[in-house]
Amino acid sequence: MLQPIRTKYRKHHRGRGQFKGKATRGATLAFGTYGLKSQEAGEITSRQLEAARRALTHEAARGGKIWCRIFPQKPITRKSPEVPMGSGKGAVEFYAAVVKPGTMLFEMDGLPEATAKEAFRLASHKLPVMTKFVVSIHKHAL
Q: pTM higher than 0.85, yes or no?
């Protein structure tokens, strides 16, 4: 699973208001012909990202190329169950990627459109945000 090798700070603030607005960066196709774009804001954990990636690669079946455009770099902490309030912040439990509406999650190239669409459909079932299938406008020029 993906996680940062080292971070400047071990624990982050929760980040109220980080889901406001639409994505401006990472919102267009940059590498592939087909893409999976988020429709709503949320946090995608490294486990969910890995499950979606595996679904994509399994459906692609050794054909085409896949790019993952997001990285889980935000540490999410949890206090163990039945611990009283106080005595500091909990330990880092997992890492998550913050996603805004319009963020490109995955890209794919080198496959027929029907295969790519089916692969992205299967991958989208593993993700906690609504997504949509995107095709490059320069598809036929490639």
A: yes
